[in-house]
């Protein structure tokens, strides 16, 4: 079997390919991300960035205490983030646990939100510690319940102990289960991968195995989507596009809580991968609290005075 | 080469004074203004005195976020606990009374005696307001007679985040914040002009007291610049505009109408109504005999 004509899927071919990737200049990546974070985005650009960021939010609830009621409320918010302002775009997707997928899909369809996809976290999220059969079943369940996007986690233990073949095979198998019914996002949990070199290796591993999106984190581990990590991943998708002409998306998740953080991410995308990535098709932000801050910033720009959290929903 | 000993006793080089860098006080920390701006405080007698931060509307925004985050915790503290924390601040003020007096005298040009009297009055008023913390529910609460099988209580509760714009003096500042926080509100204070000198020393007292971060936030600068933003800010519940020019007050009140902000101004008189002005009544119906 050949993957993009680059590797054949065997342990040795993967090791060989990943070993020849150049190392990440850690100081350089930190400095570049910090420098891009100082860009000042104002007025019409800021307005555009806020609306774009809203349309990229994967509105997420991944709590043990999730209820059908909470998921339905979140779906309503996803379709119409600000009930008083119909010019606010719908979010990119709803991201929930497996058993909530059907509830979310049904409710979205019922309220005129057919255009909002449901993403399910699967493969024994967030730890990924389960047998392959269970992970496949988990994914199939989600797709049959109506998930159009699957957020899978990689086996970090296997990755860190150098069993790249194992990680690769898992992604390939889940890719097969998804087929053309669901988009596949691969979560690395960068907070557990320790180095930027590992983030780069994991990015290529996932892209070669057939990921549509690479995603930083589960949101359960800190640090999560730090700007330098996202920078490394954006460089990887950009280089991968040069190699294969296939555009892979990036999804930072975890720790992006306010408009400023979100706009910093958009600047990173524009300056690293390029404006082609600045659409919900290729860039998503996994978040929950972020949406309220984006809405409040939007109100501030419209009204000319500072907004209050009393005027957005509690979720 | 001169020996180290010789250098240190060299009388010809006078010691360089270590000047204080004035900053803002937001969320228990001392950040510079986001804008990087400062303004000059000087007097005819002593010339240049200091460069306090000229706070911007974004500093105000940050201060409101800090005040809002601190508010529920401060309101939940028992009245006794709030009172004790405020008394403790008075103890620390007493110990530094001479420093405050000299700063007031330096910045405003009043005599040392007058400045010292102002500090003592300020401390006494602080203690006076602190004493009200556990008396408010008795003074402003009630059990109401109602025609039905209910106990009906009215309980005074703090409003939330209060902005205050005191006149340009240390005493006016104390007069504005003490009644606002004793009930459980948190405060964003807009301190004008030369009052910044003594007030920022007061912030050093707050920073080493048991007052939780964010309960009192202090911005120094210009009322003209900050007050309209505070008035229209949807997350500020009340605004004490005692220090704002009478001609500009109606404009502030119009801007505050959008979120039904309570906007009051007070003369300097000591009164518990100044506390109650930023409290609201909650009424509870409790069924009996059914």
Describe this structure in words.
The complex is a heterodimer of chains A (315) and B (290). Chain A has a single domain (24-302), classed as TIM Barrel (Alpha-Beta Barrel), CATH 3.20.20. In chain A, 49% of the residues lie in helices and 11% in strands. Chain A has helices spanning 11-19, 26-36, 43-56, 68-79, 101-110, 132-144, 156-160, 164-178, 190-193, 196-209, 227-244, 259-272, 289-303; strands spanning 57-61, 93-97, 118-122, 149-153, 183-187, 213-215, 249-251, 285-287. In chain A, α3 (43-56) packs antiparallel against α13 (289-303), α4 (68-79) crosses α5 and α6 (132-144) packs parallel to α8 (164-178). Chains A and B meet through loops of A and α2 of B.
* Overall geometric form of chain B: globular
Strands of chain A, count: 8
Just name the CATH architecture of chain B. 3-Layer(aba) Sandwich
Contiguous runs where pLDDT drops below 50 for at least 5 residues of chain B: none
């Amino acid at each position: 079997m050949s993957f993009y004509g680059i590797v054949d899927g065997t342990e040795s071919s993967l090791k060989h390919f990943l070993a020849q990737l150049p190392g990440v200049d850690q100081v350089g990546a930190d400095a570049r991300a910090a420098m891009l974070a100082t860009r000042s985005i104002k007025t019409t650009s800021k307005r555009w960035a806020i609306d774009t960021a809203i349309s990229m939010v994967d509105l997420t609830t991944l709590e043990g205490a999730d209820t059908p009621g909470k998921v339905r409320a979140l779906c309503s918010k996803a379709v119409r983030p600000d009930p008083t302002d119909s010019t606010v775009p719908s979010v990119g997707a709803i991201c929930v646990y497996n058993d909530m997928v059907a509830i979310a899909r049904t409710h979205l369809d019922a309220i005129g939100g057919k255009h909002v996809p449901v993403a399910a976290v699967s493969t024994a999220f967030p730890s990924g510690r389960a047998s392959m059969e269970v992970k496949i079943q988990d994914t199939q369940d989600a797709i049959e319940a109506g998930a159009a996007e699957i957020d899978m986690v990689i086996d970090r233990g296997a990755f860190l102990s150098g069993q790249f073949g194992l990680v690769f095979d898992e992604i390939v198998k889940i890719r097969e289960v998804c087929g053309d019914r669901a988009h596949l996002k691969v979560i690395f949990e960068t907070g557990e991968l320790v180095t930027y070199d590992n983030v780069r290796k994991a990015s290529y591993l996932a892209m070669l195995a057939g990921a549509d999106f690479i995603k930083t984190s589960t949101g359960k581990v800190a640090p999560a989507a730090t700007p330098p990590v996202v920078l490394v991943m954006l460089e990887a998708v950009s280089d991968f596009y040069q190699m294969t002409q296939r555009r892979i998306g990036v999804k930072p998740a975890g720790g992006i809580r306010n408009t400023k953080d979100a706009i910093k991410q958009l600047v990173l995308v524009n300056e690293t991968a390029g404006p082609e990535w600045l659409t919900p098709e290729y860039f998503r932000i996994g978040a929950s609290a972020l949406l309220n801050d984006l809405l409040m910033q939007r109100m501030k720009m419209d009204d000319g005075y500072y907004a209050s959290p009393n005027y957005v929903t509690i979720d | 080469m001169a020996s180290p000993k010789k250098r240190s006793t060299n009388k010809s080089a006078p010691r360089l004074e270590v000047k204080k860098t004035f900053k803002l006080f937001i969320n228990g920390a001392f950040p510079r203004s986001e804008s990087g701006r400062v303004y000059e405080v000087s007097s005819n007698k002593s010339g240049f005195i200091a460069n306090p931060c000229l706070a911007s509307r974004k500093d105000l925004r940050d201060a409101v976020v800090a005040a809002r985050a601190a508010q529920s915790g401060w309101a939940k503290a028992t009245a006794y606990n709030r009172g004790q924390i405020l008394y403790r601040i008075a103890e620390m003020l007493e110990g530094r009374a001479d420093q405050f007096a000299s700063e007031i005298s330096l910045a405003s040009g009043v005599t040392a005696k007058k400045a010292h009297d102002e500090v003592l009055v300020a401390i006494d008023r602080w203690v006076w307001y602190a004493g009200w913390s556990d008396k408010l529910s008795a003074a402003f609460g009630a059990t109401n007679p109602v025609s039905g099988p209910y106990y009906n209580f009215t309980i005074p509760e703090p409003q939330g985040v209060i902005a205050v714009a005191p006149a340009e003096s240390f005493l006016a500042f104390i007069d504005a914040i003490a009644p606002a926080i004793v009930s459980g509100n948190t405060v964003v204070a807009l301190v004008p002009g030369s009052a910044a000198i003594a007030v920022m020393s007061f912030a050093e007292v707050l920073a080493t007291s048991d007052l939780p971060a964010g309960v009192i936030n202090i911005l120094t600068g210009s009322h003209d610049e900050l007050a309209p933003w505070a008035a229209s800010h949807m997350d500020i519940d009340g605004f004490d505009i005692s220090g704002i020019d009478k001609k500009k007050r109606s404009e502030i009140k119009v801007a505050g109408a959008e979120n039904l902000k309570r906007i009051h101004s007070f003369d300097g008189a000591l009164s518990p109504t100044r506390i109650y002005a930023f409290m609201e009544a909650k009424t509870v119906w409790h069924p009996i005999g059914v």
